[in-house]
Design brief:
The protein has 3 helices and no strands. It has 2 domains: about 1-30, no CATH class; about 35-69. The protein is mainly alpha-helical. The chain is rod-shaped, with a radius of gyration of 29 Å. The mean pLDDT is about 75.
Amino acid sequence: MTTAFPQATLENSGSLTGHILAQGHAEAAQVRRSYAKVGLVLAIGLGVLVGIGVLVVLFVSNSLTGLLD
């Protein structure tokens, strides 16, 4: 059952979605990530991938040199 209140928020349908929307952006305030941590993890991952790539290139170049000699 819905009633008309002048002080009511714009969304007063009685549904759970309407209730959540009427609360504002409280969920966004709870989720807070540190961009420094994310950047550090990405930098470490990139370093590992570059290291693996360098090892593969060195191994392949040594193998090709051995085959050509």
